[in-house]
Amino acid sequence: MRIWMTGGTGFVGSNLVAQAVEGGHEVLTTVRSYQPEGNEAYQLDRIDMCDPEAVRHSVSDFDPDLIIHCAIMNDLAGLYRHREAAWQAYVEATRIIARAASAAGAGYILVSTDWVFDGTQVGADETTPPNPVNLYGVLKLASEMVALEMDGAVARVSGVNGVHRARSSAPRAQDPGYGYFVASIVDALAQDRPFTVWESADINMVATPSLASESADLILDIGTRRLVGVFHCCGAEGIGRMDLARLTCEVFDLDEGLLRSGPPDSSLFEGIPIPFDTTITRPRTSELLEHSPTPIRTLLERFRAEYALL
Questions:
Q1: Which spans in the chain are helix H?
Q2: For residue range 90-108, what is the model confidence (pLDDT) as tens digits?
Q3: For the chain, does the N or the C end have fewer beta carbons within 10 angstroms?
Q4: How far apart are CA 76 and CA 62, in angstroms?
Q5: How far, CA to CA in Å, does 253 sit from each of 80, 180, 187, 205, 280?
């Protein structure tokens, strides 16, 4: 299968590229500024995703079977400062790429997020109506609507942890969501440094963690089967921050005594509303992909094996 995608040098995107290449697929990913070394296994194309002509030419030249739109403007506070640019980068780019997919006769998948829910819709499944509380969630929901109206698939990921396959030395830090949470704990405790687990009613305190490599496999399976509609590419159960931190210590053989509890760095979200409990479930995804959700402990064990290879 030939796969044209965006965001292949990002966290989730780099796992998509790696899993696709490992599966024998031919891959082209768009890039902006960062260009990874040792990328002989796949192609790079530096284009503006908001330029319809550039996207159309790139897609036409590569002639893909599947298009995966993974790239985002990854700056929560910046979305509020540059709202028009954010709308273009999310919603209009989704429309442009979806049209290019349609013209090429390719399948289309938009990678989305559990933050389309408001933090009170505990255990939301693929049919639960979204209700985002911040601009990032709004932009993702609007993008989802575009993708679905153009007969595409939406693959929501949540609490994504794992290894960045394009930047092994990328800085990993705790944030108001769950991304990089486990890696930041492991990085600190492996060097005998204390780690403060944030606790606050103003951040994402409960989620359904996933492993980036497994989410990538699920997304690729959606594309291989040419499925449409909403999918939840997550693990089996929800968990709070401190419980996840303790389980991480257990699986990675780290000193739980180095864990602390404290308030978050509010400068990272500047009063922006954050959904508190974004736990999601995946009955439709499990049925259509014939894949049972993976328990958190197993995901962490797989993460430890990936981490050891860095």
A1: 11-22, 52-62, 76-81, 83-87, 93-104, 135-149, 181-189, 212-224, 241-252, 283-289, 296-307
A2: 999 999 999 999 999 999 9
A3: C
A4: 32
A5: 41, 18, 13, 24, 28
Distance, in Å, from the CA atom of 296 to the CA atom of 273, rounded to the nearest integer, reads 27
pLDDT of residue 268: 83
Per residue, what are the HEC states of 245-261?
Answer: HHHHHHHHCCCHHHEEE
Please give the average pLDDT of every successive group of 10 residues along the chain, which has 310 residues: 96 96 97 71 94 97 98 92 97 98 98 98 98 98 98 97 83 86 96 97 97 98 98 98 98 98 90 96 98 98 92
- Name the one residue in this structure whose structure tokens are 């000193």: 255
To the question of pTM greater than 0.70 for the whole model, the response is yes
The conformation of residue 270, written as its DSSP 8-state character, comes to T
Residue 205: what residue type? M
Q: What is the CA radius of gyration of the chain?
A: 18
Per the structure block, which two tokens stand in for 29? 């990913």
Backbone region of residue 192 per phi and psi (left: phi > 0; alpha: psi in -120 to 50; beta: other values): left
Q: Give the C-alpha separation, 89 to 189, whole Å.
A: 37
From the list 20, 266, 8, 301, the residue with the least C-alpha distance to 161 is 301
- From residue 153, alpha-carbon distances to 17, 75, 183, 225 in Å are 18, 25, 29, 11
